[in-house]
Amino acid sequence: MVFPGVQERPPNLIWILLLYFSLSGTDALGIKMGDSLVKALRDHDTFIPCTITGYSELDPTQLSVTWTLTNKAASNQLVYKFLSQTHQPIRPGSYIPTSDLIRGNAGLHLPLVQFTDEGEYTCTVVYTPDKAERQSDLQVSVQPTGNVAPPDVVVETGSDKTVMCEVNRFYPKDITIQWVKYLSDSSFVPLNKGTCTTDPIGSKDGTFNISSHLTVTPRLDEDGDKYACVISHRSLEKEQKLNFTLTVKEQDDKISGVIGAIVVTVVVAFVVALAVSGYVTFIKKQPPRLSPITGAEHLVHLNRATLSCQISGYRPEPIKIILCLKRKGAELVAIYSWHSEPNADQFSKREEQSVAIEFDETQHLVSNGDSHLPPAQRALKVEMVPLIKTNKQRISNCQCTIHITPNLEEDDGAELSVWVNHRGLSVPSSVICPLKIEGVRPKLFTIVFPLRIIHGESLTLTCPINGFKPKPLSVIWIRLDLAGQETEIVSWEDGKSNIKYSRYSHCLKENMHEDYSSSFLSLLTMKPTVNEDHRVKYICRTFHYATNTEAEERMEMCVLAVPELDQIKVFPEIPCVGEEMKFSCKIHSFHPKKLEVSWYKGNEVLSTENSTTVTNENGLLSFTSRITYTPCVRDIGKKFRCEVSHQSLQNPKCVSWELKHLIRNPIVSPIRCNPEILECNQLATLSCLIKDFYPKDLAVQWYKGPEVVSADNYTEVLQEDPTSGLFCKTTEMSFIPSINDHATEFDLEIIAGTQVIKRTICIELKGLPQIKDIICNNLSPNYGEPLTLSCEVSECNARDITVEWRENNNPIKREMRTETQINRDSVSFLLKLTPTAEHYGKLFTCLIKHKDLQQPIKKSISLRLPDVPPTLSEITVSPKRIEANREAIFHIAISGFSATGLQVKWLKSFTPLTANIITTAPQIGRDGLYSCTSTLRYNLTDSDHSKFIRCEVTANREIKGKQFQLYLKGDEPKGKQTLNATEGNKVPMQKGLSM
Predict the structure, then answer these.
(1) pLDDT band at residue 982 using 50, 70 and 90 as cut-offs
(2) Exposure string for 877-911, b = 16+ CB within 10 A, e = fewer
(3) Which helix or strand (DSSP H or E) is residue 262 part of?
(4) Is the bond preceding 470 in cis, omega lying within 30 degrees of 0?
(5) DSSP structural state of residue 659
(6) Binning pLDDT at 50, 70 and 90, where does residue 260 land?
(7) How many contiguous H segments (helices) and E segments (strands) does the chain have?
(8) How many Å separate Cα 46 from the centre of its chain?
(9) What distance in Å separates the CA atoms of residue 947 and residue 964, rounded to the nearest whole number?
(10) CA Rg, the chain, in Å?
(11) How far is CA 114 from CA 38, 44, 92, 95, in A?
């Protein structure tokens, strides 16, 4: 009987079919567990199925499998875990073959299960990013063994007889025992009266024992009735029946005894007569004849083989058979013996012979006969089953069946012989059979590796080597490069790996099957790179010593590198509506070259422009993908996506950028005045149109001269263009001008984001002087070149006007001249001057006073004079012949600069000097620019020889400098004609030093 769940390995064909139908055409991860209940027997190996469905291909690097157990002892206790291509058996002996996992079989093997293994098992599978789990119950049982005592039930009429049914070593304790009486071969009735069953009693090993009693008081007509003790238990596929036959006898009396004695006497006399006749008839002895031993033509290492030898035509029946073995270089030894008439001692050491009567012949069947030889002489696993048939003439034939399990290493070339001792033989007769034992060569399956081999990620190549015996085998991994050169990288033999290159690691997993054949999994682990491994072949080569055969499997590496995408770069950072913006994304570290890049705005495909692909020192590729796009307001909130499809990716990889902000600088019209000609005390309106801007958050502020106009005094109207999404705003300010408002400037300040736009209008009232802005006759004035500033006034009488020119709100200086030029319709007020550095950054103002105006009208201009940096002379020293421990005076001239606030620093090499420094105040020179001098007085020491005296001048954050190298008296360098520190020894310092 095969108990469910008791098997070492799942049937390969069933698993292949399950995987085919469960994986094809599916996308979602799933698990199939088979039956929800798995039954197993204690101390047997069992298997709990778990089939992964939903994926046509499985990558072990993305797969993890966890088995947990929940029972009375604990909840969710970890049993087995497969993670990061590493097996972690928590329950001793548990395993999941890697080759099964690759095919989607995550079933758990549990050898020699015990009661503690019983419970609910959960198989949890994570195949990134999916997860699934299912449960299955494991039921562990022990089958009961029962017997009925006494085996032969004999009862005299009128008396009782008790029969006991003992049931031992079963688990769990729930069991049913029922006594029945057969009415026929197929029908029976249960017996409830006269029965008694004890409670189950526990044993030390966790099993239970129980007994039941049946008491019968039969009648004479019940002689020969059949009874049975019927045992029902969950470990049994069908009920176990222990049958016995009831024999009923009448009670003995003296008359029957006398009759019996007479009958016995007659029978004995008859038997004696027959014996005398038989002795005369059958007294002649016949020696046995031996046939050749057959069945040894194809012997396989550790495979059980059945040999046969016919011993025929002998009389009398008693015979002794001896099996002998002679190995190479060894003596002939007896390994098994059997006698048809065992003595009492032998009888007690082996199972009782069973005798069956078949027609008119007697058949003796002997199983598992014992050999009484030392174990050392019985290395060959052997079992002999003689089958004897004897006819009416007492001629016997013995069919001798021999079961052997040969070992190639010990028994190949040995001689197995059958020796027979019989009364009809003066010497034993024998027949010899030579043993030629073969091994089973290994079968290599295709090297298993992930669907995608990724650059720099751990990779395991698995070579299954199956079904060979005996075990000695060598495994070699070889790297075959593009030039065809083979390099041995790993070798394995006798349980040891010899790894010749540190970038590789190797382990070998062994498994022994029921037929003593071995299966290996050779696992080579590395981190492949594009430069070293792409298109390189790896070979797993084996040599089997017993069969002298070599086999190999090879695979070609296709190393992929997953593309990396940098964040999308956008220029400008804040794009403008209607203006082109540029997107770029660097795609790097990928291999091979074939790669597809797509840009999307939402789901809309955009045209792409890619740069030239570049290869780095690691063989990885990179390039930059770009697009140009002109955004509109409707694009706000849209995501721009760069998507990459590559052989190394199961799904496209992408990076996105969301357009959150857009701006559009406003177009601002000049300020308009309504009416165009203003009059005192008449309502006037100033307006400005601000259009095509985004976002709508735009602020406006009106100013009247320097004063802020209250928001209550002007209006704003905002409108949105439904087509473009841009905004438009109109602002108006109404006021009633007075005479004091004449020539007043009204300013409008528009703030759009970080941009500030200003518009200005100067209102002029009817009947009052019209004043134009000051103009300069030279748009690019220079220092020392004369120029004229002019302010024109019209619509008035020149006698009613007075003018005052000012410089930075101060009266003008003597060297400046003012003139009045009367034209036909206007009068111009002139200021003539020759600008110098003193005028740099100064503001010139023309104050126009009219008899009808309380306050003068101001018009101002700032001269656009250039910023001229200083010019430094060479540093001179006095005295010319400098000596240690004496004072030296260093002098420099600084000229031709326009800005004041000059900073002068003296240093010795890089050490600032602060004492004894005099820098004169800047003075205007003939060129109209400033000039000054700076002097340093410094006491020299011996340690100052060959050092530098430096002068640094800072003007408007620009630094210029000069330096002078010190050669003290007596230490001048060779080759110099003079020892004096003359001007020829001066070394100019680099100009434009950076701070």
Answers:
(1) very low
(2) beeeebebeeebebbbbbbbbbbeebebbbbbeee
(3) helix 254-282
(4) yes
(5) -
(6) low
(7) 6, 82
(8) 32
(9) 8
(10) 59
(11) 14, 9, 12, 16
Looking at residue 798, the DSSP 8-state letter turns out to be G
Question: Exposed (0-12), middle (13-18) or buried (19+): which is 31, by Cβ within 10 Å?
Answer: buried
The residue behind tokens 């029902």 is 232
Q: With H, G, I as helix, E, B as strand and everything else as coil, classify residue 657.
A: strand
Q: What is the DSSP letter of 359?
A: T
Tell me which residue of 409, 405, 415, 419 sits closest to 336, measured CA to CA.
419
CA distances from 694 to 543, 662, 665, 668, 756 (A): 79, 7, 7, 13, 14
Give yes or no for a contact between 871 and 824, defined as CB atoms under 8 angstroms apart. Answer: no
Q: What are phi and psi of 126, to 5 degrees?
A: -120, 120
Contact between residue 870 and residue 897 where contact means Cβ atoms under 8 Å apart: yes
Sign, Cα dihedral of 987, 988, 994, 995? positive
Please report which helix (H) or strand (E) contains residue 533, including its range: helix 530-533
Measured distance CA(761)–CA(746) in Å, rounded = 5
Task: Identify the DSSP state of 988.
Answer: P
Tokens linked to 192: 């409830």
Q: Which two structure tokens, joined as six digits, stand for 907?
A: 């240093």
| Rounded (10°) CA dihedral 227, 232, 235, 238 | 60
- Give yes or no for residue 373 having a pLDDT over 50: no
Measured CA to CA, the distance from residue 838 to residue 818 in angstroms comes to 19
Cβ within 8 Å of residue 763, ≥6 positions away: 673, 678, 684, 737, 741, 742, 743, 744, 746
Label residue 284 exposed, middle or buried (CB < 10 Å: 0-12, 13-18, 19+).
exposed
At 965, which helix (H) or strand (E)? Answer: strand 958-965
Q: CA–CA separation, 857 vs 849, rounded Å?
A: 6
Which run of H or of E encompasses 391?
A: none
Distance CA 684, CA 673 (A): 7
Residue appearing with tokens 């043993």: 435
Phi, psi of 925 (to 5 degrees): -100, -175
Tally of CB atoms within 10 A around 202: 11
Confidence of residue 85 (pLDDT cuts 50, 70, 90): confident
- Domains of the chain, each with CATH number or no CATH: 12-141 (2.60.40.10), 145-249 (2.60.40.10), 289-438 (2.60.40.10), 443-527 (2.60.40.10), 564-658 (2.60.40.10), 667-763 (2.60.40.10), 770-862 (2.60.40.10), 871-987 (2.60.40.10)
Question: Distance (Å, rounded) from C-alpha 959 to C-alpha 993?
Answer: 5
921/837 Cα distance (integer angstroms): 14
Tokens of 443: 């079968």
DSSP structural state of residue 255: H
| Structure-token pair, residue 692 | 């095509």
pLDDT at position 280:
46
> Are residues 138 and 117 in contact, defined by beta-carbon separation less than 8 angstroms?
yes
Helix (H) or strand (E) holding 495: none
Indicate the pLDDT class of residue 317, thresholds 50, 70 and 90: confident
Is the pLDDT confidence value at 17 over 50? no
Q: Report d(CA 256, CA 260) in Å as an integer.
A: 6
Task: Output DSSP code: residue 711.
Answer: G
**In terms of Cα–Cα distance, which of 383, 388, 379 is closest to 306?**
383
Q: What is the separation of C-alpha 956 from the centre of its chain, rounded to a whole number of angstroms?
A: 59
Q: Mind listing the pLDDT tens digit for each residue in 578-629?
A: 999 999 999 999 999 999 999 999 999 999 988 899 999 999 999 999 999 9
**Integer Cα distance of 810 and 788 in angstroms:** 19
Residue 84 burial (10 A CB sphere; 0-12, 13-18, 19+): exposed
Look up the pTM and report it.
0.49
Structure confidence by residue, pLDDT tens digits, 914-938: 999 999 999 998 889 999 999 999 9
